[in-house]
What does this fold into?
Amino acid sequence: MSRQNFYKTTALAFAMMFGSAAANAAPTELVVAHALSATSHYAVGAEAMNADLAKRSNGKFKLTQSYGGSLGGERELAEGTQIGTVDLAIISTGPVGNFVPDTLILDIPFLFSSYEHAHAVLDGPIGQKLLDKFPEHGLHALAWGENGFRNLTNNVRAVKEPADVHGLKIRTMENPIHIEAFRTLGILPTPMAFTELFTALEQGTVDGEENPIGVILSANFADVQKYLSLTQHIYSPAVILIAPSVWDGLSEEERSWFLESAKAGVKAMREKVRSDADNGVAILRDKGMKVVDDVDTASFQTALQPAFDEFSKKFGKDNLDAIKNFKQ
Ligand code: PAF
It folds into this structure.
């Protein structure tokens, strides 16, 4: 346990021993780290979680945010919660499969047909079973949050069909499923931490990237990218992680507060993702991006068939069908 977390755990133990006196004591402050800006859906989610937690705990806990990857990229944030140098983190599943391989199934392109479908799966027994896998790998997950459906941006050409992406150098997350899918499409995938991406786009180290509309907006990618194609090729879940060293120091009641307040955070995060998706394209157009909104989705799905065959072997057709056909 880090020194920082030792003090926190000790403070928690004291708070539990001295009961109501703790209500008047200074709150235990925990930092929620993420890679996005203060206007992003992760920031909105973390703020809603903080407000809910403050209410439930009668002011015993306070969450403050560390924005913009200042504590590291998403892989480092997952590692940080693992070893206790980061208290809580909100990250996409991008790097998570490198820690909890079962979650990679969620990163398959065109697996989810809508936000409602994704929420039903993630909030139901399949999502819970996956959350339960995290402790086996030294992590603890409170809830599935949301990053959103990903769309392609680039500086070379308008992308409408698979032939248009051939030979493009596209930054991907450090995620083997995404990398395999992109390679199948003839893209040159370049895995890179998000914290390095703006400069890489500005300097032309990569031609493009892919992210949900809210990220493209809040990261100001319109300043460095010309074309936006509404490919919606992958639904990108997020997850709220808590350091096991923090979790282990909480009482059962306190754990229930964190679990419930994480749900409030997820609700606000999803609302923000949805409003960015609904309103953001017009803003990006105004900022000068050339938007392709008639992407030939069916031909992308056909071109991805060899990758789908591989994923079916890797994860089992029954498991994929259980997600694709899930009804609440
Ligand atoms: O592209 C990524 O790495 C992720 O989508 C991001 C922007 C860090 C949000 O989780």
Remarks:
- The CA atoms of residues 50 and 63 lie 5 Å apart.
- The two ends are 40 Å apart (CA to CA).
- The first strand starts at residue 28 and ends at 33.
